[in-house]
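Why does residue order matter? Because the sequence determines the fold. Keep that principle in mind as you read this record.
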Amino acid sequence: MTGNGELLLTSFGGIYEVPVNGEYIVDTGHIVAFEKSLTFNIGKANPSWWGAFLGGEGLVCRFQGQGKVYCQTHNPGAFGQLVGPQLPPRK
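Structure:
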């Protein structure tokens, strides 16, 4: 984002910064934001579409250049442990 004003970012888990100097590959489900100094390509994680989706990776983003990527921890297990006890009991 550029300009003046407020910005709200949300994520599934904590946000961590990844400095990129060259290339960085990350699952698309973990990306929150990135600096415009980076270029990127989205592609499959595995050479075959079948292997990419069966392997659970699906699509990845290949960032290139110099800048920062902000990723989310995206940890469903930890989320379940945190939220689970707050849910009403099953009937």
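The two ends are 46 Å apart (CA to CA).
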